[in-house]
Specification:
Elements lengths: L1 E8 L4 H10 L5 E5 L7 E6 L8 E6 L4 H5 L4 E9 L1 H16 L5 E2 L1 H8 L9 E2 L1 H12 L23 E7 H15 L1
Helix pairs in contact: 3-5
Length: 185
């Protein structure tokens, strides 16, 4: 048995502020990781870590971009135990996105449709929580309560079998990870 980690945040970016304004959700961004240290976070968002565009499938880090610039960013981490097969399939799905990164774009209109409750999928265009949903659904890692294009970050807290393993700021999360690494050495 392995685990997939779902990372939710709310940065001070313009996009995050717009999403927060329209949804009032506590968290406005989601990413997925395959290790408890969250060394690589995969999502659909800022490809360069700071500027909104270009955007699409990306690999984020707690040590770069917005998370480095604003360590007081609120975040929460959920652990989802999955079978070895689902874990491998989820990795394969992410690897396929990352290998063809230029074929995909960020779905700005998808965010608006999601807020309005309109199921709307566009070829090769994803917003963050839709990206995470597709990985979890296609790998069989989770049964989602909604269609991929209707998933919002906080919907991941309601998945069957998911456990909240951390809530605080990015700085506190990094300190917690470093503390656990020091104990295991």
């Amino acid at each position: 048995m392995k685990s997939i980690f779902i990372f939710l945040t709310r940065t001070e970016s313009i996009t995050s502020k717009i999403v927060k304004f329209f949804t009032s959700d506590k968290y406005t961004h989601s990413a997925i990781a395959f290790d408890k240290e969250l060394f690589y976070l995969y999502s659909s968002g800022r490809k360069n870590g700071i500027k909104m565009f270009p955007a699409g499938p990306c690999m984020e880090s707690l040590n770069r971009g917005f998370y480095e610039r604003d360590p007081h960013t609120p975040c929460v981490v959920y652990e989802l135990p999955v079978t070895d097969e689902a874990f491998a399939l989820a990795r394969k799905e992410v690897d396929a996105f990352m290998a063809n990164i230029d074929d995909y774009k960020f779905s700005v209109l998808g965010i608006a449709a999601c807020k309005l409750g309109i199921k709307w999928t566009r070829k090769n265009k994803y917003f963050c929580s839709q990206f995470v949903a597709q990985i979890l659904r296609k790998s069989g890692a989770a049964t989602l309560p909604k269609e991929d294009s209707l998933m919002r970050p906080l919907d991941y807290a309601k998945l069957e079998g998911v456990t909240k393993v951390f809530e605080g700021t990015v700085a506190e999360l990094k300190a917690e990870i470093n503390k656990k690494e020091a104990v295991t050495v």
